[in-house]
Amino acid sequence: MEPVLEFINVCFSYHSPDGETPALSGISLSVLPGEFIAVVGPSGCGKTTLLSLISGLLRPESGQIRLFGKPCGSSGTNIGYMLQKDHLFEWRTVYDNVLLGPQIRHSLNQETETQVSAMLDTYGLSAFKDSPPSALSGGMRQRAALIRTLALEPDLLLLDEPFSALDYQTRLEVGDDIGGILRKEGKTAVLVTHDLAEAITLADRVIILSHRPARIKKILSLHFGEEFDTPLKRRSAPCFSEYFDKIWKELKSNG
Question: Cα–Cα distance between 232 and 248 in angstroms, integer?
Answer without folding.
Answer: 20
